[in-house]
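tool=predict chain=A
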Amino acid sequence: MNTEAVEVNNVSFEYEKGNEVVKDVSFSIPINSTTMLIGPNGSGKTTLLKIMVGLLLPSSGSVKVYGVEPKDNRSDTGYVPQKLYFDQTFPITVKEFLKFSYGGPDKYVFEMLENLGIRDLAGSLIGKLSGGQLQRVLIARSLLGNPKILFLDEPVSGIDMGGEQNFYDLIKEIQNKFDVTVVMVSHEVHLVSRIADQVICINKEMLCSGAPENALLPEVVEKLYGKHTSLYKHHC
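tool=predict ok
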């Protein structure tokens, strides 16, 4: 039985010839794990995530998600982009947005909102939500399809500093409650050890892979972010 949710083998990608943004990257992601893909801005993290989701095809190499190519496995995949571009003046409520996206019974929509702690937002207009509230709604939309794997691109980018920890705790709860594999892109390192089973360090090339305490060595963090960056452990 295959224990890997994602297998990335020697993947490279270039938007234009001669300008590789991902270079010969290989790693695997275990089923039902929480993996954080970290690196500085411009390191190729989002590009690599889009390749795993199936929105981009690698220039070379291969990717399998639950044993098949990403573009052929959309039903098993949930994806939350870094930003959702929409007309914020359009009068659509959270419930209507989720119903339009999912098409199933109201009961399941309300149950999912309850699971994400936002049941009270069902009647709120999408355009009036805070960054953190909107991220939870987008995660709810992704989970309504009952995916095996959830990809999140910089999910705390619209959340204030005080809300980051609560959001990461929520992601861990989701992973446990829904038995879903979570792959999350971030350029932050300070909360990695709190949530991640595995961390993958990217700066166009592969720099590290493994449990946070083994992978995020001082020399690796220096290669990612420069000499004056350090990683500290966050305690409960």
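The first helix runs from residue 45 to 53. Residues 4-225 form a domain with the Rossmann fold fold (CATH 3.40.50.300).
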